[in-house]
Each structure stands twice: as structure tokens, then as C-alpha cells.
Specification:
- The complex is a heterodimer of chains A (134) and B (418).
- Chain A has four helices and eight strands.
- With 134 residues, chain A is an alpha/beta fold.
- An eight-stranded mixed β-sheet of chain A has the order 1-8-7-3-4-5-6-2.
- In chain A, a hairpin with a 4-residue loop joins strand 7 and strand 8.
- Chain A is globular, with a radius of gyration of 13 Å.
- With 418 residues, chain B is α/β, with parallel strands linked by helices.
- Chain B is built from 16 helices and 13 strands.
- In chain B, helix 3 links the parallel strand 2 and strand 3.
- Classes of the chains: A alpha/beta (134), B alpha/beta (418).
Chain lengths: 134, 418
């Protein structure tokens, strides 16, 4: 399935989706060493987003999140692509400074159409994503 | 996005590599939000310290500074890891001192004013109503929008620093009138507000944060005589579990003197959320992560304590001594510490065994080495501080009022709700 999206950071990437229905804070919420979500009670708590296509509604929490994302990126623990319902400043800047392909504002409700484990291709150059069910 | 001639020059690298990088970040950032142009900013504030920057972030700053880049707008800096005057007394490991000094030198080279304070609006960085600013630090940013009426988006440090270098920020979000309208009503009328203190407002903020998300709430039926510390308690906590940039407190926020003004015309007939006192009571317990009675440390100052808050702690403590196995830290700015010294508070607190520590906040910096020094259970009067101390540094936390925290410092065990 192919869905149109708006580009935040251009680039093409593909990988396994990890989906969160709740917002994520990179400061405090994600371990920059491992990419494991560590916010107590978060639906992804204990799961790693490293090397995955991270799908979530948007960012929250500390505005220092772009530093933690940058450190995670340099350590190979960051997601390789980001899909948001609506980009929020801290997540957008994180993607911009690391060149991580990112899209938002999909034409369909992405939290309904993408499941964890689906194979996703982001083409942020042309502005769409492709989903293969996992 | 339309750029001025000068901004074009920066984008093309004619003003040096640092200005180019800053402009590239801002243009990409503006494009995401369909910004049509860049607007001048009058004030910038940066947030990150070593625990969040890590070595990779320090290198990023040093690369920028090494290119001879300078800020062109008054820019202040959030707290760091330790009190610069007491590095040895606090037994700060050399590895951290080296990192701290690298950040210090890079920021100085960039021309940042080294306030090391998160109440920078109390120590010289004061925008006016309607000013466009770029403040990283989610708490002070929501304060600027909601209490001062200055306009800042939730810019992270990279956007804020880029704005400081170029003197401008993309015009989107909260910079525009149409995006500052309230979106729903929160009615505080059912709460026991007459007996509320700062900690209660923090517990309320914690309870509401998730429900608020990134939507602009309009609070009605809050007392109009809330003091700054109480307003901060509510606002700063809302940004921990939510992603909010502007909160209309009817009767307090300059743009929201009435409900109609907060919605720019048509307020909804009914509140969407009416929190109960039980919700707030439950939040107290949710915030605390600890189950151990013994308290290793009581730490105040997230955000950094004002002189009024230091005075309150000193009065509650009186001439009592704190428990020999418990530390009490009051984190604040170098300015407030200087005032404490002048007013003999420093000596009286020290006589009780408490310590006033400048240049740090109670949420992050110090926990890095405190944990290594054996501190495990922390009592704190800040929900925000509790969240970051636990999630970033693995501290076990107790959250309660200033009085409960002071009593815990004296007895050495948690004296608040559990």
C-alpha cells in the first residue's frame, strides 16, 4: 500500500516498523546508548527503536531531546526513519540535524494502517511511504 | 520560504560555515511548518547540559565554535552540572570537570552569556509582551508564552542556537496570532484551591499533562492571585507529560484576561476536563517512584529556587539540624546564591547541614555524580525533577510539598504521602 505524506527531511530508507500510539520524549524516554524506550508505563517500554522505522503521533517532554537523539544517532542507536502524525519541533530538529528521513501528515490515519513488524519504505524525496504487512 | 538578502547570504555560506549551518537548520525547520518567512528574535535561551549533550553534543558545539561562529542576539544558558565555585568541595570527578569546561569554553567562544540558570527571566533575560523569542527549555518557554506573552515555539537547542546566530526564526506556530487561540477548557472549580500550595499545582499539572498533549488549554476558575512559584509549578509540570507551548490561565495570561479573549471570540459552552481532588491526590502517588523509607537526599530547585523559595526552606528548617545520613541541597542561580550570602542565609542553612548550590538544577546535572557518590533515594518538591531524576539517572524518588521534604531531611525518612 502506498500513502502520500509530507516531507520533513528528504531521503529514502526502509525497514521494520515499530509503532507507538502515544507520544515519545527522547530525553528521559529513550536510552541513547541502546535506543530502548525507558519511560515507565510507556507502551514501548523495554523495546528498542534502533535501526527501525519509528512511527508515533509526535514528540513531547524536554526540548533537549535533539541532543539525546543526536547522541543515539552517532552511537548507531537511533531509528533510521521517522513517521509522525504531526511533526513537533524537537523531533523535526532531531531528524534535520542527523539527516534522518522523516515524513508526517499522511493522507490516512497512520496509527490504523501501520502495525509493528510491517515493512516500511519511506521515500521522503517524493513524499510517500509504502507498507508491506509483516 | 522567502529569505531576505542577508539571510540568503548566510544560506549560501557568504557569512561563514556556522551561519550557513544555522540557516540550513532554520530553513529545513521552517519548511516543515510552511513558514513563509523568517522573523527577528529579541532573546534566546539554550537548555542542554552534559548529561543530555553527551560527548557527541559537546563535539557538535565545539565544531560550531571552532568555525568562529558568534551569536548575534542576547543568549543565556540553562543550568550545568555543578557549582563552578565549588567543584572540589563537591568532589566532582575530573572526567566531568573536563566535559563541563569544554562546554563552558565552547559557549563562551560562541558569545553565549553564561547564566547557568533556568530562571533566566529573573536574572536579566526578560522579553516584552509580544516579542518573538527562541527559548529552548520547555518549562521557561511555556512560561514566556503564558505569563509574559512573548512568543516562542518549542524550539530545541539546535533551533534556538541557530536563531541566536542568524538573529531570526521561521514564522510558524505560536509566533502567529491564529495559532495562539485556546482549544478547550479545563475547569479548576472543583478543586480545593483555597488550601493549594506549589506542590498541589504540580500534582495537578502532572494529572493533566497527558490529556492536554499538544493542544492549548484554557484554565478557568484558578485564583487570580496565584504567586509565580505556583504558576510555574503548574506550567512546568504540564510540559513533562505533554508537549504544550502555551497555556491560557484566564485572568493571568496577558492574552486571556477573559475566556472570550482566550478563544479569540467563541468559547465552547462546556469544559472538556474538570479535574477532581481525587485525581490530584492520585497524581502525588504516581509521581513518586520510591518505596523505600530512608531518604538519602532532599533536593530543591527544579526549576531553580527563587530567593523567596530559599527563604521558605530556611524558615521551615529553623535552627534544626538535618539528619546525618541525609543531604539537603538547594539548587539555584549564582545570583540568588549571592543574595543568600548577603542575607546570611548561606551561613544559617550551612549550620543546619543544608547546602546552597549554584549553577545547577535539581532535575538533571548533579544526579550524574550524586548517583556515583551513593545517593539512591531522593525526595523532591518537583514533579518535573522527580521524572527526570528517575528516568534519566535511575534515582528512586519521593514527591511532596516543600514542608514534607524539609521534614524528611530532618528525620532522614520520607514524611510525605506514600
Amino acid at each position: 500500500m502506498k500513502i502520500k505524506a509530507k516531507t520533513v527531511v528528504p531521503g529514502i530508507t526502509e525497514g521494520e516498523a515499530i509503532v507507538s500510539r502515544t507520544a515519545i520524549s527522547f530525553t528521559g524516554g529513550m536510552d541513547p546508548e541502546t535506543g530502548i524506550i525507558r519511560e515507565p508505563g510507556h507502551e514501548l517500554e523495554g523495546q528498542s527503536v534502533a535501526g527501525k522505522i519509528l512511527v508515533f503521533p509526535g514528540g513531547k517532554g524536554s526540548t533537549t531531546g535533539s541532543w539525546q537523539f543526536y547522541a543515539a544517532f552517532k552511537r548507531g542507536a537511533a531509528p533510521k526513519g521517522i513517521i509522525n502524525v504531526k511533526a513537533e519541533g524537537v523531533v523535526a530538529i532531531s531528524a534535520i540535524i542527523t539527516g534522518t528521513p522523516m515524513v508526517h501528515e499522511l493522507e490516512q490515519d497512520l496509527l490504523k494502517v501501520i502495525q509493528t513488524g510491517d515493512f516500511i519504505r519511506i521515500d521522503a524525496d517524493k513524499g510517500f511511504i509504502e507498507i508491506e504487512e509483516g | 520560504m522567502q529569505l531576505t538578502r542577508q539571510q540568503e547570504d548566510m544560506f549560501e555560506g557568504k557569512k561563514g560555515p556556522g551561519a550557513r549551518r544555522a540557516m540550513e537548520i532554520l530553513v529545513a525547520y521552517g519548511d516543515v511548518y510552511d513558514a513563509k518567512r523568517m522573523i527577528p528574535v529579541s532573546s534566546v535561551h539554550m537548555a542542554g547540559n552534559f548529561p543530555v549533550l553527551m560527548d557527541e553534543g559537546i563535539q557538535w558545539l565545539e565544531d560550531l565554535a571552532g568555525e568562529g561562529t558568534r551569536v548575534t542576539v542576547f543568549t543565556t544558558k540553562n543550568p550545568e552540572m555543578y557549582d563552578f565555585e565549588e567543584a572540589d568541595e563537591l568532589n566532582i570527578p575530573m572526567a566531568y570537570q573536563v566535559r563541563q569546561n569544554r562546554i563552558h569554553d565552547a559557549l563562551k567562544s560562541l558569545g553565549v552569556t553564561l547564566t547557568y540558570s533556568c530562571h533566566h527571566y529573573l536574572v536579566g533575560n526578560v522579553p516584552r509582551f509580544g516579542d518573538h523569542i527562541a527559548w529552548a527549555s520547555s518549562g521557561s518557554q511555556v512560561f514566556a508564552n503564558s505569563v509574559i506573552g512573548a512568543r516562542s515555539n518549542r524550539d530545541g537547542d539546535h533551533a534556538a542556537l541557530a536563531a541566536a546566530i542568524t538573529g531570526a526564526i521561521p514564522e510558524w506556530g505560536l509566533h502567529l496570532d491564529e495559532n495562539r487561540k485556546g482549544e478547550f477548557i479545563i475547569d479548576a472549580g472543583r478543586l480545593d484551591l483555597e488550601n493549594y500550595g506549589s506542590a498541589d499545582y504540580k500534582a495537578l499539572g502532572w494529572h493533566l499533562g497527558k490529556a492536554v498533549g499538544a493542544k492549548i488549554p484554557v484554565f478557568v476558575n484558578l485564583p487570580h492571585d496565584m504567586v509565580i512559584e505556583e504558576i510555574k509549578g503548574l506550567l512546568y509540570t504540564l510540559t513533562v507529560t505533554g508537549a504544550i507551548g502555551l497555556v491560557h490561565l484566564v485572568g493571568i495570561t496577558p492574552e486571556a484576561m477573559t475566556v472570550e479573549a482566550a478563544f479569540a471570540g467563541n468559547p465552547p459552552p462546556l469544559p472538556e476536563i474538570t479535574p477532581s481532588q481525587e485525581d490530584v491526590n492520585r497524581a502525588y502517588l504516581d509521581i513518586s517512584s520510591s518505596s523505600e523509607e530512608k531518604v538519602d537526599m532532599v533536593i530543591f530547585g527544579c526549576p531553580q529556587c527563587s530567593i523567596q523559595e530559599v527563604r521558605e526552606i530556611a524558615d521551615l528548617l529553623g535552627d534544626r539540624k538535618i539528619h546525618p545520613d541525609t543531604q539537603l541541597w538547594i539548587c539555584t542561580s549564582a545570583w540568588v546564591k549571592a543574595l543568600c550570602k548577603r542575607m546570611d542565609l548561606l551561613d544559617s542553612l550551612r549550620a543546619s547541614g543544608a547546602r546552597v548550590v549554584a549553577d545547577v538544577g535539581a532535575a538533571d546535572g548533579p544526579h550524574l555524580y550524586l548517583r556515583e557518590q551513593g545517593v539512591r533515594v531522593v525526595a523532591i518538591n518537583s514533579a518535573r525533577g522527580s521524572y527526570y531524576a528517575h528516568n534519566l539517572f535511575g534515582m528512586e524518588t519521593w514527591f511532596g510539598s516543600t514542608r514534607e521534604c524539609v521534614e524528611s531531611a530532618v528525620s532522614g525518612k520520607w514524611e510525605g504521602r506514600k
